[in-house]
Amino acid sequence: MKNSSSLLLSWSGGKDSLLALDTLLKESHVPLLFTTFNQFGKIAIHGVEIGLIEKQAEALGLDLIKVEIPKNATNNEYEEKLSVALSELSFIDSIAFGDLFLEDIRTYRENFFSKISIKTLFPLWKSDPKSLLEYFIQSGFKAVVTSVNQSFLDQSWVGVELDSQFFQKLPEGIDLCGENGEYHTFVYDGPVFKNRIEFQKGAISLEDNHYMCQLFNM
Fold this sequence. Notes:
By secondary structure, the chain is α/β, with parallel strands linked by helices. It folds into 2 domains: 7-121, 3-Layer(aba) Sandwich (Rossmann fold), CATH 3.40.50; 131-217, no CATH class. It is built from 6 helices and 9 strands. The chain has helices spanning 15-26, 50-60, 75-87, 103-115, 129-138, 164-169, and strands spanning 7-10, 32-37, 64-68, 94-96, 119-121, 142-149, 183-189, 199-207, 210-217. A 5-stranded parallel beta sheet has the order 3-2-1-4-5, with helices on both faces. It is globular and about 45 Å long.
C-alpha cells in the first residue's frame, strides 16, 4: 500500500464522501478509501461502476479497499462481510463517514464498529447543508447526479450537474444534501484531484424505486 494510514473513509464516490475527505485532509489525516459494491460491479443505490470509483482513488492518490456485498443482502450478511474484510486490516483503528444528522444511522454505525474495536468519526456531523454545498461549488468541485429516489424527485433530476441551479430548483421539503436519500452523486473533478475523471452518460432506468443514469467508464 502507498501509505500506512490507520483510518478508513467510507467512500461512495459522491459529494458527502468527498466533503468528508476534504475535511480530513485539512486536519492532516490521509485515509484509505473503503467502498462496498454488489456482484454487478456497482455501488448500491448510487449505481456507479466500481471502475469509476477506482479512477477516483487513483486521481486522489489514495488506496482503495473494496468489499463485494451481495445485492439485497440482509444486515447480518452485510455485517459479516464487513467484519471479515476488516479483520484482515489489523492496522485499521478508525473509520470515518460523511453523515450529517441522521441519529439512527450514526448510532447503528457506532454500535456495529465498536463490536469489532474500530472507532467511528463523523467529520461533517451537524454541518450546515447550505454552507457545505456553497463550499463544494465555490471550491470548484464537479459532480453529476447519478440517482434519485422517485418518492422525492422525478427522472428529470438524474444526469444533471450538481451546481447552484440544481439547489435553487430543489422542491420544498427536499434536504439540500439529500441526507434522506433523495439523490446521490458522483464527483469527477476538484482541487483534491490530480486529474478530471472522464466518463460518458448513458440511459436512465428505474431500479429499486430509484431513477439511475448509467455512467460509462472511459
